[in-house]
Amino acid sequence: MTAKRTPKRTLSLRPDPGGTVPETAMVMAAGIGKRMRPLTATRPKPLIQVAGQTLLDHVFDRLRAAGIKRAVVNVHYLADALEAHLKNRVKGVDIVVSDERDQLMETGGGIVKARDLIGDKPFVVANADNLWVDGPADTIKLLASRWDDDLMDALLLVVPLARAHNHGGLGDFHLDANGRITGRRKPGRVAPFVYTGVQILSPRVIQDWPEGPFSTNLFWNRAIEAGRAYGFVHQGLWFDVGTPPAIAKTEALLIDA
Protein backbone atom coordinates (compact mmCIF):
# COMPACT_ATOMS: atom_id res chain seq x y z
CA MET A 1 0.00 0.00 0.00
CA THR A 2 1.36 3.45 -0.93
CA ALA A 3 1.48 5.74 2.10
CA LYS A 4 -0.24 9.08 1.75
CA ARG A 5 2.21 11.77 2.74
CA THR A 6 1.23 14.75 4.87
CA PRO A 7 1.24 18.19 3.24
CA LYS A 8 3.91 20.49 4.61
CA ARG A 9 2.06 23.10 6.60
CA THR A 10 2.00 24.14 10.21
CA LEU A 11 -0.77 22.88 12.46
CA SER A 12 -2.25 25.32 14.95
CA LEU A 13 -1.21 24.50 18.51
CA ARG A 14 -4.09 26.42 20.10
CA PRO A 15 -7.26 24.43 19.58
CA ASP A 16 -10.63 26.15 19.77
CA PRO A 17 -13.05 24.25 22.05
CA GLY A 18 -15.85 25.26 19.70
CA GLY A 19 -14.68 22.76 17.05
CA THR A 20 -17.17 20.43 15.38
CA VAL A 21 -17.55 17.19 17.33
CA PRO A 22 -18.17 13.99 15.35
CA GLU A 23 -21.75 12.80 15.53
CA THR A 24 -20.78 9.17 16.10
CA ALA A 25 -18.58 7.43 18.65
CA MET A 26 -17.52 3.83 18.92
CA VAL A 27 -17.36 2.60 22.50
CA MET A 28 -15.09 -0.41 22.95
CA ALA A 29 -16.87 -2.57 25.53
CA ALA A 30 -16.16 -6.14 24.43
CA GLY A 31 -13.07 -6.96 26.50
CA ILE A 32 -12.95 -9.82 29.00
CA GLY A 33 -11.27 -7.81 31.77
CA LYS A 34 -8.75 -10.41 32.93
CA ARG A 35 -6.72 -7.93 34.98
CA MET A 36 -9.86 -6.87 36.86
CA ARG A 37 -10.59 -10.37 38.21
CA PRO A 38 -12.23 -11.45 40.47
CA LEU A 39 -14.59 -8.48 40.00
CA THR A 40 -15.21 -9.45 36.39
CA ALA A 41 -16.20 -13.00 37.26
CA THR A 42 -19.83 -11.90 37.40
CA ARG A 43 -19.93 -8.63 35.44
CA PRO A 44 -18.20 -7.14 32.40
CA LYS A 45 -15.44 -4.66 33.16
CA PRO A 46 -17.37 -1.63 31.82
CA LEU A 47 -20.01 -2.26 34.52
CA ILE A 48 -17.49 -2.10 37.39
CA GLN A 49 -18.36 0.84 39.63
CA VAL A 50 -15.92 3.66 40.36
CA ALA A 51 -16.90 6.74 42.35
CA GLY A 52 -20.57 5.79 42.46
CA GLN A 53 -21.23 4.83 38.86
CA THR A 54 -20.07 2.35 36.28
CA LEU A 55 -17.07 2.96 34.06
CA LEU A 56 -19.42 2.77 31.08
CA ASP A 57 -21.62 5.51 32.53
CA HIS A 58 -18.58 7.74 33.09
CA VAL A 59 -17.76 7.41 29.39
CA PHE A 60 -21.30 8.15 28.26
CA ASP A 61 -21.45 11.19 30.54
CA ARG A 62 -18.46 12.58 28.63
CA LEU A 63 -19.85 11.67 25.20
CA ARG A 64 -23.22 13.21 26.00
CA ALA A 65 -21.66 16.38 27.37
CA ALA A 66 -19.61 16.78 24.18
CA GLY A 67 -22.75 16.57 22.04
CA ILE A 68 -22.23 13.14 20.49
CA LYS A 69 -25.57 11.90 19.19
CA ARG A 70 -24.91 8.27 18.39
CA ALA A 71 -22.72 5.47 19.73
CA VAL A 72 -21.80 2.07 18.35
CA VAL A 73 -20.98 -0.26 21.24
CA ASN A 74 -19.30 -3.62 20.69
CA VAL A 75 -20.17 -6.44 23.10
CA HIS A 76 -18.74 -9.91 23.76
CA TYR A 77 -18.17 -10.96 27.39
CA LEU A 78 -21.42 -11.07 29.40
CA ALA A 79 -23.01 -9.25 26.49
CA ASP A 80 -26.57 -9.60 27.80
CA ALA A 81 -25.70 -7.60 30.91
CA LEU A 82 -24.11 -4.86 28.82
CA GLU A 83 -27.06 -4.66 26.45
CA ALA A 84 -29.52 -4.48 29.35
CA HIS A 85 -27.52 -1.66 30.92
CA LEU A 86 -27.34 0.24 27.65
CA LYS A 87 -31.09 -0.11 27.16
CA ASN A 88 -32.16 0.76 30.70
CA ARG A 89 -29.53 3.21 31.95
CA VAL A 90 -27.95 5.08 29.03
CA LYS A 91 -30.09 8.00 27.86
CA GLY A 92 -29.59 10.88 25.45
CA VAL A 93 -27.44 8.97 22.96
CA ASP A 94 -28.75 6.63 20.25
CA ILE A 95 -27.16 3.21 20.78
CA VAL A 96 -26.31 0.65 18.11
CA VAL A 97 -24.78 -2.67 19.23
CA SER A 98 -22.03 -4.41 17.29
CA ASP A 99 -22.37 -8.03 18.39
CA GLU A 100 -19.11 -9.96 18.91
CA ARG A 101 -20.62 -12.78 20.95
CA ASP A 102 -19.31 -15.40 18.50
CA GLN A 103 -15.75 -14.08 18.43
CA LEU A 104 -13.91 -11.33 20.26
CA MET A 105 -12.36 -9.22 17.52
CA GLU A 106 -9.95 -7.03 19.57
CA THR A 107 -9.80 -3.30 18.94
CA GLY A 108 -8.95 -3.18 15.24
CA GLY A 109 -11.13 -6.12 14.35
CA GLY A 110 -13.96 -4.59 16.36
CA ILE A 111 -13.76 -1.39 14.32
CA VAL A 112 -13.76 -3.39 11.08
CA LYS A 113 -16.79 -5.42 12.17
CA ALA A 114 -18.64 -2.19 13.05
CA ARG A 115 -17.53 -0.22 9.97
CA ASP A 116 -20.95 -0.27 8.27
CA LEU A 117 -22.55 0.97 11.50
CA ILE A 118 -19.98 3.74 12.01
CA GLY A 119 -20.52 5.51 8.70
CA ASP A 120 -18.25 7.47 6.40
CA LYS A 121 -17.26 10.43 8.60
CA PRO A 122 -14.53 10.82 11.26
CA PHE A 123 -15.62 9.24 14.54
CA VAL A 124 -14.59 9.21 18.18
CA VAL A 125 -13.36 5.96 19.72
CA ALA A 126 -13.46 5.57 23.50
CA ASN A 127 -12.55 2.55 25.59
CA ALA A 128 -15.41 1.69 27.93
CA ASP A 129 -13.02 1.22 30.85
CA ASN A 130 -11.60 4.70 30.43
CA LEU A 131 -11.96 7.37 33.12
CA TRP A 132 -10.91 10.97 32.73
CA VAL A 133 -11.73 14.37 34.20
CA ASP A 134 -11.88 17.42 31.95
CA GLY A 135 -9.37 20.22 32.33
CA PRO A 136 -10.28 23.86 31.54
CA ALA A 137 -12.61 22.79 28.71
CA ASP A 138 -14.48 19.72 27.48
CA THR A 139 -11.87 17.14 26.46
CA ILE A 140 -13.70 15.67 23.47
CA LYS A 141 -14.57 19.12 22.14
CA LEU A 142 -10.91 20.12 22.40
CA LEU A 143 -9.85 16.93 20.65
CA ALA A 144 -12.39 17.56 17.88
CA SER A 145 -11.18 21.14 17.43
CA ARG A 146 -7.68 19.80 16.89
CA TRP A 147 -8.83 17.45 14.10
CA ASP A 148 -7.63 18.41 10.61
CA ASP A 149 -8.97 16.05 7.98
CA ASP A 150 -6.43 17.19 5.41
CA LEU A 151 -3.53 16.21 7.68
CA MET A 152 -4.79 13.39 9.87
CA ASP A 153 -6.02 9.84 9.76
CA ALA A 154 -5.72 9.35 13.53
CA LEU A 155 -5.70 11.80 16.45
CA LEU A 156 -4.99 10.20 19.82
CA LEU A 157 -5.68 11.77 23.19
CA VAL A 158 -2.50 11.26 25.18
CA VAL A 159 -1.40 12.18 28.69
CA PRO A 160 2.12 12.80 29.98
CA LEU A 161 3.55 9.67 31.58
CA ALA A 162 4.07 11.58 34.83
CA ARG A 163 0.30 12.28 35.03
CA ALA A 164 -0.90 8.81 34.01
CA HIS A 165 -2.43 7.81 37.35
CA ASN A 166 -2.19 4.09 38.25
CA HIS A 167 -0.45 3.36 34.96
CA GLY A 168 2.40 0.89 35.28
CA GLY A 169 3.87 1.22 31.80
CA LEU A 170 6.78 3.25 30.46
CA GLY A 171 4.84 5.33 27.94
CA ASP A 172 3.67 4.77 24.38
CA PHE A 173 4.52 7.58 21.97
CA HIS A 174 6.83 10.45 21.06
CA LEU A 175 5.37 13.66 19.56
CA ASP A 176 7.02 16.48 17.65
CA ALA A 177 6.35 20.18 18.27
CA ASN A 178 3.22 20.08 16.07
CA GLY A 179 1.82 17.02 17.81
CA ARG A 180 2.67 14.56 15.05
CA ILE A 181 3.47 11.10 16.43
CA THR A 182 7.07 10.49 15.45
CA GLY A 183 7.48 7.03 16.94
CA ARG A 184 6.75 4.53 19.66
CA ARG A 185 8.60 3.72 22.83
CA LYS A 186 11.73 1.67 22.17
CA PRO A 187 12.56 -1.38 24.31
CA GLY A 188 14.35 -0.41 27.50
CA ARG A 189 13.45 3.25 27.05
CA VAL A 190 10.73 5.61 28.30
CA ALA A 191 8.30 7.46 26.04
CA PRO A 192 6.81 10.72 27.34
CA PHE A 193 3.16 10.15 26.41
CA VAL A 194 0.57 7.48 27.23
CA TYR A 195 -2.48 6.73 25.09
CA THR A 196 -5.64 7.37 27.11
CA GLY A 197 -8.08 5.15 25.22
CA VAL A 198 -9.75 8.09 23.44
CA GLN A 199 -9.13 9.04 19.81
CA ILE A 200 -10.63 10.32 16.58
CA LEU A 201 -10.20 8.16 13.49
CA SER A 202 -10.98 8.73 9.84
CA PRO A 203 -12.79 5.88 8.08
CA ARG A 204 -9.87 6.03 5.64
CA VAL A 205 -7.86 3.88 8.06
CA ILE A 206 -10.29 0.98 7.74
CA GLN A 207 -8.70 -0.80 4.80
CA ASP A 208 -6.53 -3.82 3.97
CA TRP A 209 -7.27 -5.59 7.23
CA PRO A 210 -6.38 -9.19 8.12
CA GLU A 211 -8.95 -11.87 8.79
CA GLY A 212 -9.99 -12.36 12.41
CA PRO A 213 -9.05 -10.38 15.53
CA PHE A 214 -6.31 -7.76 15.42
CA SER A 215 -5.24 -4.59 17.20
CA THR A 216 -5.81 -0.96 16.17
CA ASN A 217 -2.01 -0.78 16.20
CA LEU A 218 -2.14 -1.95 12.56
CA PHE A 219 -4.00 1.21 11.53
CA TRP A 220 -1.89 3.42 13.79
CA ASN A 221 1.38 2.09 12.39
CA ARG A 222 0.28 2.92 8.85
CA ALA A 223 -0.78 6.41 9.88
CA ILE A 224 2.49 7.01 11.74
CA GLU A 225 4.51 5.87 8.72
CA ALA A 226 2.54 8.21 6.47
CA GLY A 227 2.96 11.13 8.88
CA ARG A 228 -0.79 11.26 9.44
CA ALA A 229 -1.01 10.20 13.12
CA TYR A 230 -1.13 12.94 15.73
CA GLY A 231 -1.50 13.23 19.47
CA PHE A 232 -3.27 15.84 21.57
CA VAL A 233 -2.20 16.23 25.19
CA HIS A 234 -5.01 15.88 27.72
CA GLN A 235 -5.24 18.87 30.04
CA GLY A 236 -7.17 17.23 32.86
CA LEU A 237 -6.88 14.06 34.92
CA TRP A 238 -6.69 10.53 33.56
CA PHE A 239 -6.83 7.19 35.39
CA ASP A 240 -5.83 3.69 34.35
CA VAL A 241 -8.52 1.66 36.14
CA GLY A 242 -7.30 -1.74 35.04
CA THR A 243 -7.06 -3.67 38.32
CA PRO A 244 -9.10 -3.89 41.54
CA PRO A 245 -6.51 -1.93 43.62
CA ALA A 246 -6.69 0.91 41.10
CA ILE A 247 -10.34 1.54 41.97
CA ALA A 248 -9.65 2.74 45.52
CA LYS A 249 -6.64 4.78 44.36
CA THR A 250 -8.73 6.45 41.68
CA GLU A 251 -11.59 7.22 44.05
CA ALA A 252 -9.18 8.77 46.55
CA LEU A 253 -7.74 11.07 43.89
CA LEU A 254 -11.21 11.98 42.58
CA ILE A 255 -12.22 13.27 46.01
CA ASP A 256 -9.89 16.21 45.49
CA ALA A 257 -10.70 16.68 41.80
- The topology string of helices and strands comes to EEEHEHEHHEEHEEEEEHEEH
| Low-confidence residue ranges | 1-18
Q: What percent of the residues sit in helical stretches (DSSP H or I)? A: 10-25%
Identify the CATH homologous superfamily: Spore Coat Polysaccharide Biosynthesis Protein SpsA, Chain A
User: What characterizes the major β-sheet?
Assistant: 7 strands, mixed
Overall geometric form = globular
By helix and strand content, what is the structural category?
alpha/beta
What's the tally of helices?
A: 7
CATH architecture: Alpha-Beta Complex
Q: Largest sheet, order of strands side by side?
A: 5-4-1-6-12-8-13
CA-atom Rg in angstroms: 17 Å
CATH topology description = Spore Coat Polysaccharide Biosynthesis Protein SpsA, Chain A
Strand percent estimate: 15-25%
Give the number of domains: 1
Termini separation? 46 Å
User: What value does the average pLDDT take?
Assistant: 91
Description:
- The protein is α/β, with parallel strands linked by helices and 257 residues long.
- It has one domain (24-255): Spore Coat Polysaccharide Biosynthesis Protein SpsA, Chain A (Alpha-Beta Complex).
- Helix content is 25%, strand content 25%.
- It is built from 7 helices and 14 strands.
- The strands form 4 sheets. A 7-stranded mixed sheet has the order 5-4-1-6-12-8-13, with helices on both faces. The chain has a 3-stranded mixed sheet with strand order 7-14-9. A two-stranded antiparallel sheet has the order 2-3.
- A hairpin with a 5-residue loop joins strand 10 and strand 11 (181-184).
- The radius of gyration is 17 Å and the shape is globular.
